[in-house]
Amino acid sequence: MRTETILPLEMRDVCLTLGGAALIHRVSFTLRAGPRTIILGPNGSGKSLLLRLCHGLLKPSAGTVLWHGGGGKTASQYQAMVFQRPVMLRRSVTANVAYALALHDAPKEKRGAVIAEALALTGLNAIADRPARVLSFGEQQKLALARAWVLRPQVLFLDEPTASLDPAATHAVEKIIEAIHARGCKIIMTTHDLGQAKRLADEVLFFNQGRLIEQTRADAFFEKPQSVPAQAFLRGELLWNETEKTVP
């Protein structure tokens, strides 16, 4: 039984260099349990790389990624990640969810109940026996969320989870994200959709050119961002060589 949270998640002067290119520059922040954290920024700003650094899929070139409740294997057991285009196994919807439990050695006698709950949460009960690879993009994203939630993570990373979806499917996925958050799971998510960020965010991390420019409450960010790049981003301007100046 879980008695301690792995949060807060802290980054200390994290840098990432790949192929000789510096992509993340001395990023420091702390993310605590509770608020839904949305990571915003223009394309190429480092949002997805940041998520992978947090989740442990990438190792920083310098700096530290620290989980309060323990690092390494301990923290990795209590977090999950859903990608923009998740990989579907050549199995049924139910079997895809069951496979996630098997990978984590969940007790066999308990798998049926937690699978049923995950399918109910994501609205997939009616198509539980359907092959996963014939599902629509929206249904596949629901299945990816079911596979993640069945593990009962304390932290769920979401990388542009509705980027390829129509408005109806986007609405359905957002409702699932809200339901998972309501059950006590920390949501850390990237999105390019400002409307979605306004609907879901409690706090915003704004990135530009691999640097953290602002970390603030969502209402404050959307009402009065404190940097020139953030103001330009909210106006819909293209950012490619902006300086990170603070607005007087």
List keywords for this structure.
248 residues; alpha/beta; six-stranded mixed β-sheet; three-stranded antiparallel β-sheet; 9 helices
The number of E-state strands comes to 9
Run of helices and strands: EEEHEHEHHHEHEHEEHH
| Envelope shape | globular
Beta-strand fraction estimate: 15-25%
How would you write the strand order of the largest sheet? 5-6-7-3-8-9
Looking at how many chains there are and whether they match, the oligomeric state comes to single chain
Helical residues, percent: 25-40%
Mean pLDDT: 91
Low-confidence stretches: 241-248
Radius of gyration: 18 Å
Q: How far is the N terminus from the C terminus? A: 50 Å
- Sheet bearing the most strands, described? 6 strands, mixed
Tally of individual helices: 9
The SS-based structural class is alpha/beta
Question: Would you write up a description of this structure?
Answer:
By secondary structure, the chain is an alpha/beta fold. The chain is 35% helix and 23% strand. The protein is built from 9 helices and 9 strands. The protein has helices at 47-55, 73-76, 93-103, 108-122, 137-149, 167-182, 194-200, 218-223, 228-234, and strands at residues 9-18, 21-31, 37-40, 62-67, 79-82, 155-159, 186-190, 203-208, 211-217. The strands form 2 sheets. It has a 6-stranded mixed β-sheet with strand order 5-6-7-3-8-9, with helices on both faces. A hairpin with a 2-residue loop joins strand 1 (9-18) and strand 2. Helix 4 (108-122) packs across helix 5 (137-149) and helix 5 (137-149) packs parallel to helix 6. The protein starts with 8 loop residues before the first strand and ends in a 14-residue tail after the last helix. The relative contact order is 0.17. Mean pLDDT is 91; it is low at 241-248.
